């Protein structure tokens, strides 16, 4: 398939049960993350999950984890997932160049992970409608800061269409069900 991305992956950051309860617009966040996960699976794109302190914040939301139960889950203590050694090894093993990122919180773990990866030379694309924070102003500040660090802002649908690349492939019919 033709695409703007070179060896992309999806990284879902800290969409955990107890943390999710405090976020703004949770239903939209879960829907957008779900679409990205389903699209990544359809396109055979590597994807992984992060969780932060699962003993305190609970597990990754089961409905998201079930969509990609075979995807690696990296438990972290650093807010920035880019520091996680096993994650870095996974990126290298999969020859990742472009990273699509969604999750929570936009101004903390998503931002630190995205900015760290961008600083390390990856092309990072944040799904602006696939991230959240407790307060809308914090989300906005996180998005602006990421963009200042070279992270590319995008929307879930745009990222999925870029990853799909073309309409004349067998997967396109199933793809349309994801983006509708």
Key terms for this structure?
globular, 180 residues, 46% helix, single chain, six-stranded parallel β-sheet, alpha/beta
Briefly summarize what is shown:
With 180 residues, the chain is of the alpha/beta class. The chain has helices spanning 17-20, 26-42, 54-57, 62-65, 85-93, 106-119, 136-148, 156-164, 172-179; strands at residues 8-13, 47-52, 73-76, 98-104, 123-132, 152-154.
Description:
By secondary structure, this protein is of the alpha/beta class. It has helices at residues 17-20, 26-42, 54-57, 62-65, 85-93, 106-119, 136-148, 156-164, 172-179; strands at residues 8-13, 47-52, 73-76, 98-104, 123-132, 152-154. It has a six-stranded parallel β-sheet, with helices on both faces. Helix 2 (26-42) packs antiparallel against helix 9 and helix 6 (106-119) runs parallel beside helix 7. The chain is globular, with a radius of gyration of 15 Å. The model has no long low-confidence stretch (mean pLDDT 94).
Radius of gyration, in Å, reads 15 Å
| Number of helical stretches of at least 4 residues | 9
Class per helix and strand makeup: alpha/beta
Please provide the count of β strands.
Answer: 6
Which bin fits the share of residues in helices? 40-55%
Write the layout of secondary structure elements.
Blueprint: E1 8-13, H1 17-20, H2 26-42, E2 47-52, H3 54-57, H4 62-65, E3 73-76, H5 85-93, E4 98-104, H6 106-119, E5 123-132, H7 136-148, E6 152-154, H8 156-164, H9 172-179
Parallel strand pairs: 1-2, 1-4, 2-3, 4-5, 5-6
């Amino acid at each position: 398939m033709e695409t703007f991305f070179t060896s992309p992956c999806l990284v879902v950051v800290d969409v955990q049960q107890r943390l999710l309860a405090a976020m703004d617009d949770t239903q939209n966040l879960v829907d957008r993350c779900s679409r990205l996960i389903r699209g990544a699976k359809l396109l055979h794109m590597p994807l992984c999950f992060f969780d932060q302190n699962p003993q305190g914040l609970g597990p990754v939301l089961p409905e998201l984890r079930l969509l990609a139960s075979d995807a690696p889950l990296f438990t972290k203590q650093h807010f920035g997932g880019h520091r996680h050694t096993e994650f870095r090894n996974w990126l290298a093993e999969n020859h990742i160049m472009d990273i699509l990122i969604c999750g929570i919180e936009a101004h903390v773990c998503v931002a630190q992970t995205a900015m760290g990866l961008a600083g390390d030379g990856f092309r990072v694309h944040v799904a602006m409608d696939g991230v959240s924070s407790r307060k809308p102003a914090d989300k906005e500040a996180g998005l602006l800061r990421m963009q200042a660090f070279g992270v590319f802002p995008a929307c879930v649908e745009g990222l999925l269409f870029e990853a799909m690349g073309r309409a004349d492939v067998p997967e396109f019919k199933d793809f349309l069900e994801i983006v509708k």
